[in-house]
Amino acid sequence: MADQTSKTVTLDVRDDLRSGRDPFDKIMGALAGLGEQDRLVIINIFEPKPLYDVLASRGYAHQAERTPEGDWKITFEKSGAAS
Q1: Which end of the chain is more exposed for a tag (fewer CB within 10 A), N or C?
Q2: pLDDT by residue (tens digit) across 39-68?
Q3: What is the model's pTM?
Q4: CA dist list (Å): 57 to 51, 67, 71
């Protein structure tokens, strides 16, 4: 079997939110470009709990962590994807 390389796409949506723009379409667009082994990392000003259910319904698991600055870093990857 050939080696599969994965990539990580990082979206920092803090400025969008601070400017009153909803980053949902940007997030969904980034997901559409991901391969099965790829990850999406979102940097946010709050923990986006409603997004967890939306992406779980599309097969994505998440891991969230609070940054030292008080923001959130959430990593999404396909459930069952090799780490």
Answers
A1: N
A2: 999 999 999 999 999 999 999 999 999 999
A3: 0.88
A4: 10, 26, 25
